[in-house]
Automatic annotation (TrEMBL):
Site, Substrate discrimination: residue positions: Y13
Domain UmuC: 4-184
Enzyme active site: E103
Protein name: DNA polymerase IV
Cellular localisation: Cytoplasm
PROSITE patterns in the cross-refs: UMUC
Amino acid sequence: MRKILHVDMDAFYASVEQRDDPSLRGRPVVVAWRGARSVVCAASYEARVFGVRSAMPAVRAERLCPDAVFVAPDFARYKAVSRQVREIFLRHTDLVEPLSLDEAYLDVTAPKIPSPSATATAQAIRAQIRAETSLTASAGVAPNKFLAKIASDWNKPDGVFVVRPSQVEAFLTPLPVAKIPGVGKVMEKKLAELGIATVGDLRMHPVEELQSRFGSFGRRLHLRAQGIDERAVQPDQPVQSISAEDTFERDLLLYDFEADIRRLAEKTWLATRRTERVGRTVVLKLKTAQFRILTRSHTPEFPPASLEELTTIALSLRDRVDLPPSTRYRLVGVGLSGFRERGEGDGQGSLFDDDLPSVPAPPDR
């Protein structure tokens, strides 16, 4: 039986800003550039009271909380703190799988530092983070990654939640299906049409029908409803690709969803800030109303150096789609692939420097 932690820094970027500037403490802080196309990178808990959330448009955040203090993100500082936290993790186990600057999975089945329990290890890690960074973190403790990630959100901020093996079914049964990673609004609606609203409902639904309707994802849904997740914690896995995609509420023509491509390009670019590696190939993914999947890609001489470059290339890839103009599409995605270490290849050393002015940050909790 594995003992897995999911440790998640609390409102990471906003908390770093409040720590470093005492005048921001206790005030609603929004980490974002101002502007019509900017998105919120992080919101302090004081701002969240007003409904401000990560990844929402900055202009909407300003409407929701007119008194919010907007702070431009400082990625160099956030990465430095992230490295401090990573060093703390590695004192306890070598099995650390970073998901972003502010969260990671840890396998503490056999911790380096003797501990009476995984819960005690989680508490020790959180105490060291607080002592050495003056920041707080929340943790989930569970037999697998899926459960640990859900659990870490349970007692936020600055809390721990434990799901013991004997508690898995009772814990999962009442949860809304949206708690399962990969179940967004569109999938939630499709499951609701089958009478599935909770994980308990999902567990009782025939796996054959789930597979018939949703393919391999249906099978994965069935396993998650049982609390089954056999994925091991994978340390130091280099990023190969980053992408974001969305399913439309109704099928659209190829040139009717430019705004969606722009939004997904921004989300993908935002996610590149979670890694030190550099992506070179831009990919546009489409799914037709008949569920045909097609991709178009372009590898420029140098990796995209800005959100604008990424977006321009992604939009241009529509011109390489050779289906009839009347074809309608149900899904679009924008991605970057061909990741390499920073500095590999001509011109790559400076493209993702931390002082680039126009890159939004990944959502954090």
